[in-house]
Amino acid sequence: MHRSNGLISLVLLLTLFGTVACETVGNASAQVSSTPRPAARVVAATHLPSLALTQPLSSAQTLPIIPSSTATFTPVPAFTQTPQPTLPLEYLITNIRGHHQFFALGCEASAAKDWANYFGRDFNEFEFQYRLPLSDNPDYGFVGDVNGPWGQTPPYAYGVYAGPIADLLNSYGITAKAYKNYTLEQLKAKLAQGIPAIVWVIGNMVGGLPAHYIDKSGRTVIVAAYEHVVVVTGYSQDRIRYMNQGLFYEIPTDIFLNSWGVLGDMVVVDS
Questions:
Q1: How far apart are CA 169 and CA 164, in angstroms?
Q2: Which terminus of the chain has fewer CB atoms gathered within 10 Å of its CB, N or C?
Q3: In the chain, where the domains are located
Q4: C-alpha to C-alpha distances, 164 to 67, 143, 195, 268, nearest whole angstrom
Q5: What are the tens digits of pLDDT across the range 70-119?
């Protein structure tokens, strides 16, 4: 009976000790878990583009280093605008005379003769016409029969453009130059110097339909029915004055520009 009581006492002591130990551990766990944890800081990911070498450098390659002392810089010059001469509001050339063309399609030779006469030079119109080169392209020579019907386009009887006319005038010792895409301002500037201009238009300054023509050599040129040539002799604020076979006309500038522009604003002037 005494041993049993001792054994029972020992069991009770061990049980008590285990209970106390478990409570201590449990309390410690509770203390750790009850301590507040810092909030997690979210860092946004930044995308960095990858660097791709189109041609990797070998270990033997080196990049040249340019010393800054050798670098030179050329300053950009300041823009200066050349003042343009002021044109008079109007200018008329009055001491020029003309005549009726000799050939049915000889307006170019006729206008060239009147233009040369203004500068005190002269030549035989018949001779001038037959000295022009012949071609199926008016940029290179006279197209078709000079006595043919008016209003056709190449390769039929047509006429000739500014280049061959200027070349032939120069062969007579008369300074002349042909231009395409001449501007109204350039034309007025010539007139204001007392220099008339031979221009290519349609009819007696009417509209027209340009067309692309390909010659036998494969070259393209703009042509239009009723191609014609007159001599411009003056201008005012809103009108252009010209001579057509010895007769003088004045028309609104926009009508002139419409007709002149069909064949590419073509002229023969002195230079």
A1: 9
A2: N
A3: 91-269
A4: 60, 12, 20, 10
A5: 333 334 445 555 556 789 999 999 999 999 999 999 999 999 999 999 99
